[in-house]
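Collaborator request, handled under Task 6.
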Amino acid sequence: MARRPRSSKKAQDAAGAVARSNGLSGDLVKSYIERWDALDQELASEKGSFMKKAKTIAEGRKELLSEAKTRGINPKALRSEIKCRSLSNKIQAERASLEAEDAQQAELIRSAIDALNTPVTAPTSAEKREEDSGLADTLTGDDEDDD
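Structure tokens returned to the collaborator:
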């Protein structure tokens, strides 16, 4: 058997009983919900105007890259350089935000990482011959400084 829905009078009485039992007024809750809805509408409106403005800025960027291309500047290279510059600025801002002790620790960490990333280059053939000659002199005892 299907359950019969409550009549609207019974539903109102039940809602009133719940409101009385927990101390909340349905009108008070409804007013907060309506205010929330109004803020949501305002936010949606602001998002719309923001998106229009963002689209205008994006179109300006495209025009700038197109103009640069017509003047012989590679747009990919230009974008890459702009991105690198932006990242560099972010890195500088992050480092500037550190307190003195943290900045010192960060510098030590950077130095350790740089030491790991420093490529070990093989000696040139001239350096290799010079090294071998010095080693041979040491082994045979023919140092030039003995004169």
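The cover message to the collaborator said: "The chain has a mean pLDDT of 81. The two ends are 119 Å apart (CA to CA). Please let us know whether this matches your experimental observations."
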